[in-house]
Each structure stands twice: as structure tokens, then as C-alpha cells.
Amino acid sequence: MPRPIDPARRRARRLQIIDAALTAFARHGYAGATTAEICRIAGIGSGTFFHHFPTKDSVVAAILEQGTRETREFFGGRAPGTPPRQVLFDFVGHAAADLADPRAAGFITVVGGLTARPEIAAALRDDENTLRACLREVVAAAQDRDEVRTDLTADRLALWIVLLVDGFAGRVAAGGFDVTAETPLLVDQVALLLDGSRPGPSQ
């Protein structure tokens, strides 16, 4: 009789492989991060790897999908009563903290070279759509409470928050960028976006 599968153990093993793959991709790039190297970092055999992930593309997609799940958990887990505007800034800080991971730059570079691959393109689309939907909901709530500008739609503001964070991520990938030192300026830019334009000096 076959042994029952323990879902928690299966999830833990998948996360172990995902974490090892993230390290391998960051260190060696896509081509250099062989499945053997991922297995070595994870401390598993190749049979275990291929039981969970049939290809390297599938593990790249799984890393992206894990990020999407964490986005849902972040917005779904906010404390009741937290002002929507605060949730937006908490998200920006959360995103910047993720980009402070020393592996972030290498992985962003890897993904940038794989966007034409269907499985990875689909994971990227789902990630962006999820993030925009979560942000749109919070921005709309902030607009209802008059916490942010209302001259732009919630969807447009959500899009621009994504653009600011993505641009920040792009600089991280380029290297030589101090995430901790530059995060306050990212927060400032999001604040300017949410507050709207102010009258300039008289001409």
C-alpha cells in the first residue's frame, strides 16, 4: 500500500528547492545554475528535484509564483483597522526589503532574459496582475477615506506604484545600488505620487 503524501512536508521540500534555485540562479546565471548545482545547494538528489520540477523553467516560474503568493498573503494579512494609506507604504517597505536580499539582483537579471518563454511569461503576468489588483483595492479604499489624491483612478495610481517599484528593482539589478540608503527616496516618490501636484512658485 503506498504511503500517504504529507502536504506540509511536500510544501516544505518545494520551498527548500525554490530557495536553493534562487541562490544558484543569483550566483551562476541561468545557464550556470544546473539542476545538479541546485540539488547540491538544496542537499537533495536529482530524483527529488525532478519529482517537484520537470525543468529549470518550471522552478523559475515557481519562484515567481511564490512571490505572487507572498503578495496575496501580505495584503490579505494586514491588521484590521490599518489605514489604507499606511498599507501602501508598508507594501513599498516590504518590496524594498525583498530587494535587499543579495540574491535579488542576479535573479532579476535571469528572469529578464527569459521573458519570451511561455511558462515564465505567464507567471510574470499573473504576478503583475495580482499586485495591481491588490494595490488598486487599497488605493480605492484610501481614496474613499480622502487619504490620497482622487484626480486619478485607483488603477492608474496602482500602475504607477508598480512602475516606481519596478524601476527601483531595475536599478538593483544593474548593481552598485544601496537599497537601504535609497529606500527613503522611493518612499518619498510614492508619497509625491499619492499626494498629487502642489502649486509651484509664481511666475
From TrEMBL:
GO molecular function, one term: DNA-binding transcription factor activity
Domain of life according to the entry: Bacteria
SUPFAM superfamilies per the UniProt record, alphabetical: Homeodomain-like, Tetracyclin repressor-like, C-terminal domain
DNA-binding region as annotated in the record: 34-53
PROSITE patterns named in the record: HTH_TETR_1, HTH_TETR_2
Annotated ranges, domain HTH tetR-type: 11-71
Keywords, ordered alphabetically: DNA-binding, Repressor, Transcription, Transcription regulation
PANTHER family documented for this protein: HTH-TYPE TRANSCRIPTIONAL REGULATOR RUTR, HTH-TYPE TRANSCRIPTIONAL REPRESSOR RV1474C
Protein name: AcrR family transcriptional regulator
Annotated organism of origin: Amycolatopsis endophytica
